[in-house]
Specification:
Strand content: under 5%
Number of strands: 0
Radius of gyration: 13 Å
Distance between the termini: 45 Å
Number of helices: 2
Structural class: mainly alpha
Length: 49
């Protein structure tokens, strides 16, 4: 089985449109794409807790 190495620009745009249709916020969409790409984001809390 061939391993998927990258998403095409069209696939990323389709993913963004699908996430928007599910009422994901812009920040959630960016977080999702970063997670798929493998970028680890620091766990920060916006509410100061």
């Amino acid at each position: 089985m061939e391993v998927l190495k990258a998403m095409t620009a069209r696939e990323v745009l389709n993913l963004i449109e699908w996430l928007k249709s599910k009422n994901f916020s812009s920040d959630d969409i960016v977080d999702c794409i970063e997670a798929v790409e493998g970028k680890k984001k620091e766990d920060t809390k916006e509410d100061g807790k």
